[in-house]
Amino acid sequence: MNILSFFIIVPLLMLASLWASRSVNQVRGVMVVGSSILLALSVYLTIDYIELRQAGATGEMLFTASTVWYAPLHICYSVGVDGISVAMLLLSSIIVFTGTFASWKLQPLTKEYFMWFTLLSVGVFGFFVSTDLFTMFMFYEVALIPMYLLIGVWGSGRKEYAAMKLTLMLMGGSAFLLIGILGIFYGAGGETMNLLEIAKLHIPHEMQRIFFPLIFLGFGVLGALFPFHTWSPDGHASAPTAVSMLHAGVLMKLGGYGCFRVAMYLMPEGAAMWGDVFLILTTISVVYGAFSAVVQTDLKYINAYSSVSHCGLVLFALLMMTRTSCTGAILQMLSHGLMTALFFALIGMIYGRTHTRDVRLMGGLMKIMPFLAVGYVIAGLANLGLPGLSGFVAEMTVFVGSFQNDDTFHRVCTLVATTSIVITAVYILRVVGKILYGKVLNPEHLKLTDATWDERVAVICLIACLAGLGMAVEKSSHDSLRLLSLMRHNIKDFKKKVEKENYEHIELISLLIELDENIEIVYDDMQMIQPLFKIQRKSITDVSVTESIKKVIKYFRSDIDNKITINIENELGDLSIKTNAGLILQVLINLVDNSVFWLKSSDNADKHLYFHLNPLEQTLIVAAN
Asked: Which of 266, 325, 354, 106 is nearest to 622 (CA)?
C-alpha cells in the first residue's frame, strides 16, 4: 500500500478506536499513539523523499498512486507529494501531536472532542497528499466542517456567532472553488481531474481570465485575504486551544497551498493577468492585520490579527512570482504554522490558570510561571523576526525576493509590506512587557502554578522545531553556496581549457562568461539572504541560469557519432538535442554535481541527460512569457 494512504488510514483508525473507548485515559492513549504514528510517518516520508531526490528521482511528484472512483467524470483517488507537500505533512503532524498534549485535560465530552479533532486532521492530511482536483476539494470540505462543532460546542466567548460566521464565509469560498474546479476540468478538455495531467494541457486564455480569480478567491478566504478575513479573528478567539493551534497553524495554510498548487500552477496566464489586483489586497492584509493587532487587548485577538498579517504575507510572496519570494512563501507557511501554534498553546495554558485573556488585567507572570513566560517570549521573538529563528529567514526571503521585481508597482508594494516588521515588534514587545514583567496586578495570580508535564511536552516540541527550522535553513544555504561556488570554478576551468587549446569557439567562451555572470548573481543573492531551504531537491536552478545553460547546450548541435540526448523537461515541451558526448559532458557534468543533473543509460545504449525544472520554475517561466 502507498505510504501516503496511511496519512488517511491512521486517522480513520483513530476515529474507530476513539468511538470504542470507554474512559478518558483510553481516549488519551488513542490520541497519543495515533498522533505519534502520524509524526513518525511524516519524519520517515521526509527522509525517504530527500534520499530519493538525491539519488536522482526526477518526477514532479513521488510516491504517486491512483485508483478510479467515478469513471464518467474521471474522478480518481490520486495521491503524490513534492517537497512542498512533504513539508506541509510534517507541519500538520507536529501540530496534531502537540495539540493532543495541549488538550490533555479538556472537559467536558473529551471523547467527542477528539473525534471531531481527528476528523479535521483527516481532511488536512488528505488535502496535502491529493493530486486529483475533486479529491482535493472533498478533503478540503472535510477539514472545514468539523470547525463548526469544535468552536460552537467547546469554544468560549461568542462561540455560536464565531462558529456560524466562520462556516458561512468558508462555505461561500468553497462555492467559488467548486465553480473554478469545474471550469478548469472542462477548460482542459474534460478528460482528467489530475493536477499533473492538466498542467501538461493548455487552458484557454479566456477561461484562465475567468476562473483564476474564482480559485484564488476561494482559497484566499481561508488564507485570510482582505476583505474576506473577518471570520478569522472571531474564530481564533472562540476556538479551544488545540483547535486554534490546528486552525491557524495548518488549516489556514490550505489557503496558500491551494492558491499555488491549483490557481497559479494550472493557470499561470491568469496569474499574470490578475496578479496585481490580488497583490494590492494581500498588501492591505499584511499591514491591516499588523495595525489591528496593536489596538487589541485580548491575547487571542492579538495573535489572530497577527495571523491575518502573516498569512497575508504568504499570498503576497506568491503573487510576486519570483523564485526567491515563492521560496519565502513556503518558509513563511512553515514558520508561521509552528509559531502561531506555540502562541495559541501558551495563551490557552495561561488562560486556563488566570481565567482572563485581557492584557490589562495581567502582570508579573514571569515570576509566577517562568516556563510558560519564557516560552511566550521565544514565540514573540520568532514572530517579530529575531535572527536565528524561523521568522527571520522566512520574512527576509519574502521581502528580498519581492524586491527583485524591478518595476515601481511591485517595489512600492514591497516597501509598504515591510512596515509590518516594525508594527509587529510594537505589539509583541508591548504585550510581553505588560503581562510578563512589572508587578502582579491580581493577588490571586500568586497562587498559580507553572506548566504541567503534558504542557511542557507540547511547548518544548514547538520551540525545538522553530529553532531547528531556522538553523536548517542556514545549513542548507551554506551547502547551496558551496555548490554554486563549485559551478563557477569549473566553468572558469573549462573556459581556460578552450582558450589554451586554441579552439575557435569565441561564441562558446561568450556563453560561458554569460553563464558565470548569471550564477554569480544568484550566489550574491544567497550570500545576502541565505534563503534556500529546499526539501524538494538540493538543487541550484534559476530562470536566468537555466536560459544560459540552454544556450551552451544549443551551441554543441552536431550530427557526429557518439551522441547523447539532452532533455530539458518543462511545461512548454521537451527540448531534445543531439550533440557530441565528450564536449557536452565536460561542459555540463563538470559544472555541477549530481544534485542537478542526472546521467542515465537507456536500452539502446544512448545516454540521456536530464535537467529538470521543478513546478515552481515552470510556472514562473510560463507567467513571464
From this structure: 266
Please give the residue that has the higher pLDDT: either 76 or 620: 76
Give residue 491's identity as a one-letter amino acid code.
Answer: I
pTM, 2 dp: 0.75
467 burial (CB, 10 Å; 0-12 / 13-18 / 19+) is middle
Burial of 475 (0-12, 13-18, 19+ CB in 10 A): exposed
Mean pLDDT (the chain, rounded): 76
**Helix (H) / strand (E) containing 301:** helix 299-320
Q: Which of 73-87, 524-538, 544-558 has the lowest mean pLDDT?
A: 524-538
Nearest to 511 by CA among 529, 498, 530, 526: 498
Query: CB-side exposure of 617: number of CA atoms within 13 Å?
Result: 19
Measured over the CA atoms of residue 498, residue 501, residue 503 and residue 504, the dihedral's sign is positive
Contacts of 176 (CB under 8 A, 6+ apart): 214, 215, 217, 218, 221
Nearest to 599 by CA among 588, 591, 610, 590: 610
**Which of the four pLDDT bands, split at 50, 70 and 90, describes residue 486?**
low
pLDDT for the residue numbered 6: 92
To 10 degrees, the CA torsion angle through 129, 203, 264, 89? 0
Q: What is the pLDDT of residues 276-295, one digit of tens each?
A: 899 999 999 999 999 999 98
Please name the residue that has the C-alpha cell 557534468: 589
CA 276 to chain centroid: 22
3-class DSSP assignment, residue 194: strand
User: What does the pLDDT look like over 568-619, one tens digit per residue?
Assistant: 333 333 333 333 333 343 344 334 333 333 333 333 333 333 333 333 333 3
Provide the pairing of β-strand 607-612 with 75-81.
Answer: unpaired
Query: CA-CA distance, 453 to 63, in Å (whole number)?
Result: 38
Q: Which three cell numbers stand for residue 115?
A: 473525534
Helix (H) or strand (E) holding 518: helix 506-529
From 63, 61, 52, 51, select the one nearest 4 (Cα to Cα). Answer: 63
Say what the pLDDT of residue 583 is: 39
Q: Which residues of 309-344 are buried (b: 16+ CB within 10 A; e: fewer)?
A: bbbbbbbbbbbbbbbbbbbbbbbbbbbbbbbbbbbb
- Band (pLDDT 50/70/90 cuts) for residue 13 is very high
> Are the beta carbons of 211 and 183 closer than 8 angstroms?
yes
Cα radius of gyration rounded to whole Å, the chain: 25
Q: How far apart are alpha carbons 298 and 301 in whole angstroms? A: 5
CA distances to 53, 198, 553 from 56, in Å = 5, 25, 21
Lowest mean pLDDT among 51-55, 151-155, 328-332, 339-343: 51-55
Please identify which residue in the block is written with the cell numbers 545553460.
549
Tell me: the pLDDT tens digits for 37-81?
A: 999 999 999 888 888 877 767 677 888 888 888 877 788 888 988
State whether residue 534 is helix, strand or coil.
coil
Mean pLDDT of 199-228: 86
Region 227-241: mean pLDDT is: 83
Question: Residue 204: is the preceding peptide bond cis (ω within 30°)?
Answer: no
- Are the CB atoms for 283 and 416 separated by under 8 Å? yes
Eight-state DSSP code of residue 444: G
The CA distance from 273 to 210, in Å, is: 10
